[in-house]
Amino acid sequence: MEKTREFLKSIGMPGGDAYDLPTSEKRFADGGQFRFEVPGIQGPKVMKALLEAMDSYGLYLHRVTQTQGIMRLSDDDISKMVELAHQYQTDLILAVGPRATTDTSASVHTEEGVRMGYRLRGQEQIVRAIEDVKRAVRLGCRGFLVYDEGCLWALNEMRKAGEIPSDSHFKVSAHAGHGNPCSAKLLETIGADSINPVRDIQLQMLAAMRQAVNCPIDIHTENPKSTGGFIRHYEVPEMIRIAAPIYLKTGGSVAATHSWDSTEDDARKRAKQCSLVKRMIDEYYPEAVWSPRGSLV
After folding, report:
1. Pick from 186, 188, 224, 292: most CB atoms within 10 A?
2. What global pTM score does this model have?
3. Which domain of life is it from (predicted)?
4. Residue 232: per-residue pLDDT
């Protein structure tokens, strides 16, 4: 076992999970350690309600994430969400579709086939996913939530070739099921600009993942019932300390599922959850550095 650990270290990976929970010295380009992200915001009216509610709490977001898929939005929906993102100085992340759950195959809906997650079946689905991204790019969006590693690689190649804007950025979903440093390194290598590991990743695992990659890590501070329903607010200060730079994905417990069709009232409840997490940070890690509003790089 020790030889295996030594080899992993020789290729730049941690030799095991970081039970000593070392402090991360890595930061966002603006010097910040953490940012807030609210997922599951499926349209412009709900997005507006969320951003107004965040203002009422004296808080701000760096990311608003739509999870149902670009193909579920009209051009007008996307344009309005892009406009709101500019107005409130936040990043807009749109989910790439189609996905296995909307494909003509029933496999993903079976007990064993569920392991496919939201990955894509066949090259035509890759083509369609890229078309989804290109459409959103034309309407002004630059942030994309990706579920399929092959699609991520292809989109990164397009970005390098100038087929899509160089400032496009790709976030890998927790639904891709990655939870170790080697997987995180692979994702970063093929184009991930931020990585959302599995929702129940433990602190020592998270600390080891931070040692392997430089890109931001996105962590669910709470979860819908469909993915466990656990709330990790008390862990947030340590998450920031050991895993910076980190996006705190907050408000998920308001929803029943990943693609929950949030209402405007749901959006206001998600904003409240952000205020509760911020209270934890203020009490237990007050020196933590929150990225300034509008700092999106």
Report:
1. 224
2. 0.94
3. Bacteria
4. 96
Contact 187, 152 (CB under 8 A): yes
Mean pLDDT of successive 10-residue segments in the chain (297 residues)? 97 97 98 97 97 98 96 97 98 90 80 82 95 98 97 98 98 96 98 97 98 98 88 97 98 84 93 98 98 91
Residue 87 lies in a domain: yes
Outline where 139-223 has alpha helix (H). 149-161, 181-189, 203-212
The Cβ-side half-sphere exposure at 43, using a 13 Å CA radius, reads: 14
Q: Is the N-terminal amide bond of 98 cis, ω within 30° of 0? A: yes
Residue 169, beta-bridge partner list: 143
Distance CA 199, CA 137 (A): 29
Q: What pLDDT, on a 0 to 100 scale, did the predictor assign at position 297?
A: 72
The answer to whether the peptide bond before residue 224 is cis (omega within 30 degrees of 0) is: no
Q: What is the pLDDT of residue 211?
A: 98
Buried b (16+ CB within 10 A) or exposed e, 4-35: eeeebeeeebbbebbeebeebebebeeebbbb
Cβ-in-10-Å burial (0-12, 13-18, 19+) of 150 comes to middle
- Give dist(CA 9, CA 265) in Å, integer: 49
pLDDT at 227: 84
Q: DSSP letters of 15-81?
A: SS--TT-PPP----TTS-SEEEEEE---SHHHHHHHHHHHHHTT---SEEE--S-GGGS-HHHHHHH
**Residue 112: how many other CB atoms lie within 10 Å:** 7
| Amino acid 104: pLDDT | 80
* Domain of residue 241, residue span: 21-104+117-284
**CA nearest neighbour of 263 among 39, 47, 37:** 47
Does any domain span residue 280?
yes
6 belongs to a structural domain: no
